[in-house]
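so my prof wants the structure for this chain in the tokens format not the other one, which i didnt know existed until like an hour ago. anyway here's the sequence
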Amino acid sequence: MIDRFRAILVRKPADTSTAEVVELGLDELMDGDVTVAVSHSSVNYKDGLAVTGGAPVVRRFPMVPGIDLAGVVEESTSAHFRSGDKILVNGFGLSETHYGGYAQKARLRGEWLIPLPEAFSAAEAMAIGTAGYTAMLSVMALEERGINPASGPILVTGAAGGVGSIAIALLAKLGYRVIASTGRLHEDVYLKELGASEILSRAELSDNPKPLGKERWAGAVDSVGSKTLANVLAGTKYGGAVAACGLAQGMDLPASVAPFILRGVSLLGVESVYAPIKRRLAAWSRLARDLDPEKLAAMSRTISLAEVFGAAEDILAGRVRGRLVVDLSR
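here's what i got, hopefully its the right format
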């Protein structure tokens, strides 16, 4: 086992945080009963916030960011995992209170890990990452509320981002007609290749919302929040449902109760960080079945650890299309 390894470390010596690539030792890892050789991670919106200090998502310093990781167990005293097992982790406080995936080694609690699905390599699992896992949870939430392809079209906001891209691919394969909302209208070919039937300008959903609008979609996957989510709710059909899983535009919700009490619309909160293992396993099983691997490859790009800093800036600025995989060997 290699004793020294590369990692991105976020420190906060004063009022602002700093991030850089450093060399750490195994004795500097945090407590846990499983030590993992990390091969891949990913870049999510939350990772962008952690690396740049764009929001106070890091709650203890120093911190290794990266809310996702995949790799191989090197040492374990957990009853559920042993040396050589291929695993992945999403969330559970990684990058917030526990060292995350932007390091070649990680020491974790065994109850956070799930076996790497046989359908995916470590790189493919990280191409999905928290963004794709959240998209799957959102689709499952809509299904459980009774929304199916016959119900009507499904709107996906933030369509060119990670959650949006995978949500479109999943919904299209499941037979839904998908409306993709994006501020990057030049990505229309990309979105239609993923399965979108219609492209909607983000501007149509970002203005001050009315209590109710024309009934346009039976359901939605929203990763934007704020005015966009309020407008999405106002345009949802009678008995429809909206899965809310992100806050790229903001945490506020300037909406009225009209969609809920006049149309029976349901707002479904989707939480991925601390979802129970049974729910995680169900989501990853569905991803293995319902996500087209060719579409996953088309929406993914691989970068090195050193390239994470630029990627963090880009994802916050809305310049990242699809998914970014971090190869820890680079």
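also thought this was worth mentioning. The first helix runs from residue 45 to 52.
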